[in-house]
Amino acid sequence: MIERKAGAATSLRTIVAASPILCTILDRWTSIDLPDCWLSGSAIAQTAWNAAFGLSPEYGLADIDLVYFDDADLSEEGEARQVARIRGLFPDLPLWIDAKNEARVHLWYEAKFGYPITPYRSSEHAISTFPTTAGAVAIRPGTAGLSIFAPFGLDDLLSYTVRPNKAQITQVIYEAKVARWQSCWPALTIVDWHEN
Fold first, then answer.
1. Is residue 80 part of a domain?
2. Pairing of β 145-149 and β 138-142
3. CB 57 within 8 A of CB 50
4. 52-101: pLDDT as tens digits
5. Do 189 and 158 form a contact (C-beta atoms < 8 A)?
6. Domain span at residue 122?
7. Domain-embedded: residue 48
8. How far is C-alpha 56 from the geometric centre of its chain's CA atoms?
9. How many domains does the chain have?
10. From what superkingdom does this record's organism come (predicted)?
11. 3-class SS at 69?
12. Does 150 reside within a domain?
């Protein structure tokens, strides 16, 4: 579902508007031109944490994730072409930009993580399986301003709470992410895997 709570959505839009990196990507959105595409994942959460803790907008960001859904081309080569094209659009950004075709994730997931997943039906379906509730947030320009997709709402994101989304990940994956994030943002509230 698209996030509809006006106060939380307004807070996130304010945070995004203050980020030169996220704004650069959103300002060039029409050039990205990928089907069912969203700017998603940890970069949004980390930008919100940076705003909350008085850090620079780019602090701790490892990369920027764009997810899209193109079930007409499930090839690794097709995805690699899109990744190269997208990176060429942002030579001025200091971060790695990754673009993942969520329609093909099931083809490589087991080899990387050790267990199979069913194919995603859309980018939104994929985002709904992201490892944490705070990171399962995506944005893109819309006709009425910034569109926000937040299947778990924005409360965890805006209260700096990291909670596992057990739809797909394992405890090991969750705890590895938490360890990195705690080293950068020690004031986060971390929900233990077994408490959720």
1. yes
2. antiparallel
3. yes
4. 999 999 999 989 999 999 999 999 999 999 999 999 999 999 899 999 99
5. no
6. 6-160
7. yes
8. 19
9. 1
10. Bacteria
11. coil
12. yes
Residues, the chain, total? 196
Q: Tokens for 76?
A: 């690794």
Q: Which long-range contacts (CB under 8 A, 24 or more apart) does 31-37 make?
A: 31/89, 32/66, 32/86, 32/89, 34/66, 34/68, 34/70, 34/82, 34/86, 34/99, 35/68, 35/69, 35/70, 36/68, 36/69, 36/70, 36/122, 36/123, 36/124, 37/66, 37/67, 37/68, 37/123, 37/140
Read off the pLDDT of residues 129-183 as tens digits, 9 standing for 90 and up.
999 999 999 999 998 899 999 999 999 999 999 999 999 999 999 999 999 999 9
The two three-digit tokens of residue 109, written as one number: 């997931």
**Phi, psi angle pair for 120, to nearest 5°:** -75, 155
Q: What 8-state DSSP symbol labels residue 130? A: S
Q: Residue 61: exposed, middle, or buried by beta-carbon count in 10 A (0-12, 13-18, 19+)?
A: buried
pLDDT tens per residue across span 29-52: 999 999 999 999 899 999 999 999
Residue 193 lies in a domain: no
β-pairing, 63-68 vs 96-101, is parallel
Tokens of 94: 């200091």
Does this model's pTM top 0.90? My answer is: yes
